[in-house]
From TrEMBL:
NCBIfam families: kynureninase
MF terms in GO: kynureninase activity; pyridoxal phosphate binding
Modified residues (N6-(pyridoxal phosphate)lysine): 296
Region (Disordered) location: 1-23
Catalytic activity: L-kynurenine + H2O = anthranilate + L-alanine + H(+); 3-hydroxy-L-kynurenine + H2O = 3-hydroxyanthranilate + L-alanine + H(+)
One example of a Gene Ontology biological process annotation: anthranilate metabolic process
Keywords: Acetylation, Cytoplasm, Hydrolase, Pyridine nucleotide biosynthesis, Pyridoxal phosphate
Name of the protein: Kynureninase
Cofactor: pyridoxal 5'-phosphate
């Protein structure tokens, strides 16, 4: 666990005395970019700065562990605008991470085993199927900051959220609310709505949604803490995302956990966009429960094996509401005597036997994380996203509006502590055309309603030169989009 490292943030406070998640880097990214530019005697936006940043990047070789899509293979590509053999600018690890090259090998190992020995594969080999999930648990501990007994790899994310809520949400007449962000991911919103309905509760009264202040895009920690302070006595569960899927805001999990628990609430997090992206210390923070998926920053492929965390303090007190045979202790599981010996903690929440083919892809990716370490990845990520922010601000900020028609806003918080890899961009013109033009040029990112384009340079496989190339493609995409909009308005 990261807890052993010297500068791990047990309860780190900043100069204002606020609980923070991780120490800030010694030099802000914009200053690093300027320093390098001055060493090279060039402008900070010069390509040489990107190349120097790549040269100095000790993690750059991890890109070789992944398949990077080529321009020619992307469905919306316009081959008149790009070199078909070049690698695409893949900035969509926030949605689906790239494929580690070892996935195929690991899948083949299990397919071979199946072909050659059939059911004997349950017990032998690198990943005996019966304990397939458990064979890779150790690789997940550093990523979420928990011990093996606190983590289970099972199901999909929303399924895990439901299973956890069934056990953690026990409303009483006095304490019956679930607190969450107003614009939580739809699946979380629906899961919570349906859990409330399951208890016969009135959704309007029991689903406590926190909105950003008027005119603001992201939530202020002080506002979250105020709601907890004022309404905590009636809140049974606080369920926040660790990092918000749309705005890219990273929530202060230790502060929310501490405040919630001080009022007697149970506190859980959906870590879909946080896991593999920022450093997590679930055990030290005392988080009650959490769940995550593995297809985004964890690169395990679409529909990959999800994860769940239950703090060890609950191992013997909070039990699964729904039980299956994989929640039964392994030593007696196959006695088949129908006398449940429940595994304490989250592993008792497992219901079915693990899907070994999904274990393989996650295994391949987690091995890379083990080598790279979350601490080093986060350090690079801060600089990589900081460089992207610097370049966007340089080319498109409001004060350039006189010369450029389109203003690009970054709605993701600018404080390093409040964001991960992703930046969400909003525009003064409709995003439909901009997005189409980006896709034609081999920039893989996504758009989300109402008006955001999400771009996420990922430290495991993206380079600083990717950011540099992205900016040039972005300038050209915006120019084309502006022309299209003018043509469209003349035609109508
Ligand atoms: C924050 C969040 N929650 C839930 C989900 C749904 O995940 P799943 O389809 O794996 O249940 C997603 C998917 O992207 C997500 O981003």
């Amino acid at each position: 666990m990261n807890s052993e490292s010297a500068d791990s943030p047990k309860e780190v406070s900043n100069t204002r005395g606020e609980l923070i998640m991780e120490p800030s880097p010694l030099e802000l990214p914009a200053n690093t970019v300027r320093r390098i530019a001055s060493e090279l005697r060039c402008h900070p936006t010069d390509e040489r700065v990107a190349l120097r940043l790549d040269e100095e990047d000790k993690l750059r070789h991890f890109r070789e562990c992944f398949y990077i899509p080529k321009m020619q293979d992307l469905p919306p590509i316009d081959l008149s605008l790009v070199n078909k053999d070049e690698e695409a600018i893949y900035f969509l690890g926030n949605s689906l991470g790239l494929q580690p090259k070892m996935v195929k090998t690991y899948l083949e190992e299990e397919l071979d085993k199946w072909a050659k020995m059939g059911a004997y594969g349950h017990d032998v080999g690198k990943r005996p199927w019966i304990i397939g999930d458990e064979t890779i648990l150790g690789l997940m501990t550093d990523i979420v900051g928990a011990n093996e007994k606190e983590i289970a790899l099972m199901n999909g994310l929303t399924v895990n959220l439901h299973l956890l809520l069934l056990s953690f949400f026990k409303p009483t007449p006095k304490r019956y609310k679930i607190l969450l962000e107003a614009k939580a991911f739809p699946s979380d919103h629906y899961a919570i709505e349906s859990q409330l309905q399951l208890h016969g509760l009135n959704i309007e009264k029991s689903m406590r949604l926190i909105k950003p202040r008027e005119g603001e895009e992201t939530l202020r920690l002080e506002d979250i803490l105020e709601v907890i302070e004022n309404e905590g006595d009636s809140i049974a569960v606080i369920l926040f995302s660790g990092l918000h899927f749309y705005t890219g805001q990273l929530f202060n999990m230790p502060a929310i956990t501490k405040a919630g628990q001080a009022k007697g609430c149970l506190v859980g997090f959906d870590l879909a966009h946080a896991v593999g992206n920022v450093e997590l210390h679930l055990h030290e923070w005392g988080v009650d429960f959490a769940c995550w998926c593995s297809y985004k920053y964890l690169n395990a492929g679409a529909g990959g094996l999800a994860g769940a965390f239950v703090h060890e303090k609950h191992a013997y007190t909070i039990k699964p509401a729904l039980v299956g045979w994989f929640g039964h202790e392994l030593s007696t599981r196959f006695k088949m005597d129908n006398k449940l010996q429940l595994i304490p903690g989250v592993n008792g929440f497992r219901i079915s036997n693990p899907p070994i083919l999904l274990v393989c892809s996650l295994h391949a990716s987690l091995e890379i994380f083990r080598q790279a370490t979350m601490k080093a990845l986060r350090r690079k990520s801060i600089l990589l996203t900081g460089y992207l922010e610097y370049m966007i601000k340089h080319h498109f900020s409001q004060d350039k509006a006189e010369t450029k028609k389109t203003v690009v806003n970054i709605i993701t918080p600018s404080r390093i502590e409040d964001r991960g890899c992703q930046l969400t961009l909003t525009f003064s013109i409709p995003i439909k055309y901009i997005f189409q033009e980006l896709e034609k040029r081999g920039v893989v990112c996504d758009k989300r309603d109402p008006n955001g384009i999400r771009v996420a340079p990922v430290p495991l496989y993206n380079s600083f030169h990717d950011v540099y190339k992205f900016i040039n493609l972005f300038i050209s995409a915006l120019d084309s989009a502006e022309t299209k909009i003018v043509e469209f308005s003349i035609a109508t």
